[in-house]
Specification:
Protein name: AraC family transcriptional regulator
Radius of gyration: 18 Å
Keywords: DNA-binding, Transcription, Transcription regulation
Largest sheet: 9 strands, mixed
Helix content: 40-55%
GO molecular function: DNA-binding transcription factor activity; sequence-specific DNA binding
Organism: Rhodanobacter spathiphylli B39
Structural class: alpha+beta
InterPro entries: AraC_XylS_family_regulators, Homeodomain-like_sf, HTH_AraC
Order of helices and strands: EEEEEEEHEHHHHHHHHE
Length: about 270
């Protein structure tokens, strides 16, 4: 049980109690007592899923919230989310994958779209059931990937970019914490730094540095939710310090990493 908080000791804000599991090209974040995130944007496509009851979501350009059990957010689009204190799963899919490309092609007309897909509710229930039963990380990933494959009708994880950029992406995903500058990445695929910079943006939609930060913040959150301190998680993911991690996490997810609590600590 958590240590009681005294009147003189303000309670730390918490926006989710749960787990994070990752795979190459995607991840699933699932938790209960999910709160509200500030306006933010991130590189991956976001699929938000509640079993019941619903959550609220909206893009940053409108004041009108939409109440739903399932929604999808396009990559790099500012939006707001409010879990309303319920259990919600967030499945992130990188747009460089075949599944990501297909999801963008199907939903790019809106920054945020509600999902009314036949068969999605059963798959969502299966994912939530794994979480409630405290299933393995592999089981969480498998259930989340089934949802992605169903919505995209494409293989999960397969790349949809130039083979040279795919090679660099694989390198980053394998070791996001490793020191890797733009010149080093360009050398990996035998390109000049200027040519590599241009090709990377053309294929991914963001800069090499921005993608590296995206990969590192995902690793840091996964490490923190696995039981490491946030200072350790920041250092292990290649951030200068926990403050740098916190700023990056707030920009990409609308919350500080310390607002997340892993299920086993709750």
């Amino acid at each position: 049980m958590p240590r009681p908080t005294s009147a003189a000791e303000p309670r730390r804000a918490v926006v989710g109690i749960g787990r994070v599991a990752m795979w190459k090209g995607g991840s699933v974040w699932i938790g209960r007592d999910t709160g509200q995130a500030q306006p933010h944007s991130h590189h991956a496509i976001q699929i938000a899923l509640a079993a019941t009851p619903s959550f609220r979501i909206r893009d940053a350009s409108t004041e009108a919230w939409q109440q739903t059990l399932a929604a999808i957010v396009m990559p790099d689009r500012p939006h707001l989310f409010d879990g309303c204190g319920h259990t919600v799963a967030m499945v992130f899919v990188e747009p460089e994958t075949l599944a990501g490309r297909e999801l963008v092609a199907r939903h790019r007309q809106h920054d945020v779209s509600l999902l009314h897909d036949e068969g999605l509710s059963a798959r969502t229930a299966a994912l939530h059931a794994v979480f409630e039963a405290r299933g393995t990380e592999a089981a969480l990933v498998d259930a989340a990937q089934h949802i992605v494959a169903h919505l995209a009708a494409r293989p999960v994880g397969a790349q949809a970019v130039d083979v040279r950029i795919a090679k660099v992406l694989e390198h980053i995903r394998a070791r996001p914490d490793a020191e890797l500058g733009l010149a080093q990445a360009a050398a990996l695929v035998h390109l000049s730094p200027s040519r590599f910079r241009h090709l990377f943006v053309a294929q991914s939609g963001i800069s090499f540095r921005a993608y590296l930060l995206w990969a590192r913040v995902g690793l840091a959150v996964a490490r923190g939710m696995a039981g490491h301190s946030w200072t350790e998680a920041a250092q292990q993911a290649g951030f200068a310090d926990s403050a740098h991690l916190s700023r990056t996490c707030r920009r990409m997810f609308g919350i500080a990493p310390t607002m997340l609590v892993r299920e086993e600590q709750a």
